[in-house]
Amino acid sequence: MKIERVIEEFNQLDEYLNREYILNISPEEILATLDDLVLSKDDFPHEIYNCYDLNENQIQKLRPFLTEEIYPDFDKYTYQLSCYEDRY
Which InterPro entries match (predicted)? Predict the structure, then answer.
């Protein structure tokens, strides 16, 4: 089972998913990169399965791990770190 981590971009008006940006990053790298990320009680540092809201600084830190460029617009969208089992 492969886990895929993404940054999801949601429209603030209707909360619908606008776009996903694929990350090439392990849970350990996430914690090292996002040193301010507070995990939920049911997540473990070697897993990180829950969704987490991201701020602009956190997105900047994750940029090197993206498969394509992201140009965040926090006036229009909200962003989340999400996780899926291999969907493709």
Answer: DUF7683
